[in-house]
Amino acid sequence: MLGCRVGFRKDVRKPGTELAREALLAFFDGRIAKWRMPADVVFVGAIPLGATGKMLKNELREQFGLESGT
Length: 70
Description:
Distance between the termini: 14 Å
Mean pLDDT: 76
Structural class: alpha+beta
Low-confidence stretches: 1-7
Strand content: 5-15%
Helix content: 10-25%
Strand order of the largest sheet: 1-2
Radius of gyration: 13 Å
Shape: globular
Number of helices: 2
Number of strands: 2
C-alpha cells in the first residue's frame, strides 16, 4: 500500500499464477481490521524500483492517477 492511504492495494503476481480480486479480498477478511481493508485491488506486471531497490511510489501514483499521500 502507498503510505497511510488505505483503499487501494497493488500486487504483483508470479508468472503462471492466477488470483482473483475477490479471492484476495476474501483472504483479507478476518485477518486485518475492517478499516484497513482495501477498497480495491489492482494487479500490475511489475512494481517500479529505483537504483537502491526501493519502490518508486511517485511513479505508481502517476500511473494510477493518485494524489500524493503527503
